[in-house]
Fold this sequence. Notes:
The complex is a heterodimer. By secondary structure, chain A is mostly helical.
Amino acid sequence: MSAANEIRLTGVHARYQFTETIRVPIAVIGTMLFPSLSLLFFVVPQSFAKDPAAATTATAQLAVFAVMSVCLFNYGVGVAEDRALPWDSFLRTLPVGPSPRLVGRLLNGLAFIALSLVPLALIAWLLTAATLPPSRLVLTAAGLLCAGLPLFAGGISIGYSMSTKAALAVANSLLLPLAFAGGLLLPPETFPGWLNSISLWLPTRAGRDLVVSATTGVGLPGSTLLVVVSWTVITGSLAVVAYRRDEGRRFQ
Amino acid sequence: MVILARAVQATRSYGPVIALDGVSLDVPTGQLLGLLGPNGAGKTTLLQLLAGLRRPTSGTVEIFGGDPRQAWRRCRLGSTPQETGLPPTLRVQEVVDFVAGHFDHPVPTGELLEQFGLTGLHRRQTGGLSGGQKRRLAVAVAFVGRPDLVLLDEPTTGLDVEARHALWDAVRVYHRGGGTVVLTSHYLEEVEALAERIVVIDQGQVRADGTLAEIRSLVPGRRLRLRAPALPELAGVDRINREGDRYELWTADSDAVVRQLVRNAVPFRDLEVSTASLEEAFLALTSPGDRPAAPTVAVMGP
Lengths: 252, 302
């Protein structure tokens, strides 16, 4: 199959995914608004919202949270739900390999991440002292993408390896611990030493440090890049194995 | 003759359950093959193997000369979602365009919708279609890519008679144009109406394989109906039903029975001889009672 054809099919699948997701708006609005509402209720009223560095850090952390929830729910639960439908079996009989479908899904998730970042950025800009100079915009986007890689692959692994109910339970039980221990809700500076040393090995913490560094310019802990790459390799391999083993829904 | 689909000793088990047990089958270009079997016989599993949805536990399955799990092998394959599993929020046109997007020279959406009696519904969300319309759309998408091989799993389940006949016509038109079809059905009538070749599968194994006439002839079943005041002792008759002067005789050799009637000068009238129906053959081949002894009969068609 030619590269041009793969790209065309990716477009076909991205558009299909987006149309399908947007047709049930309420399902995405919750995921999209949670980070913005958290910023509004837990950051804006605090005194540190007046401090540019602290407000920017808090916004960056919630941006990573937005990425994570799209990854766990849109990719994890969404894939599991789709696999349970006879339509998904039909799609697997079409002449399309895994990449256009996965990349189409990735693009769809990116679109929703972008949509959930818009209100977050607006609130941060209008109601807090957070700043993001244009020179840091590209770096921040790159940081968010890198932070999202292990989470995306993790979501895909969940989606392709379990049923909808199991995926929902796993996504829900991963979301808050990973967010909290990864320093997405409270800054890691407030952590006790033992929690901080665990935190440094989590993909969410590494992602958070990347994005905070990209937005504010603070230095990265030495382990961050290694942790992001390792988690991406681990979850990526799991995702590939889960996708290959998948034969649609299975009943015993 | 080019073989479009092939299974060689294909076996597929799900844990301890063997769904398909050493099935070998060749489907040449242009054939319309009907797979018959009771529920759970392994028909759907066989189609899933051919569509690349599952891989055989052992043995091989090929379409267009290679592994159906390779995406590009499926460029000339058309298949249909089982049940009416269409994405309910998408519009008819969106579904067709999406599937068409996978093929180089798809049938124009309007033309396809017309062919399957769905004209005027292109803006409707599929969740809002009637059961019959959903079913027709599901079958229609199998043909959108101008495939050479189409796999139809229970294509007309849940359709009324008129819609079923319209679908049959669409399948016939496709077949007349050189298309190859593998079809499963609950309806013997459907297989009888469409298929050139019938493969009976039961408990994961091929029980019989041949033309309609050959499958029918596997049952030692010819039925003689006649009226007569009384019948003498007749050799070679398996069963006699009598109702007044009406007789129904079951035999393997109707000619011999008629000769005996004539030789004995039986004053019979209204003689009718008919072959066993496909249904009778089907029941004989798959009835649970004689399963251990069920013969594997391979009658190869022309």
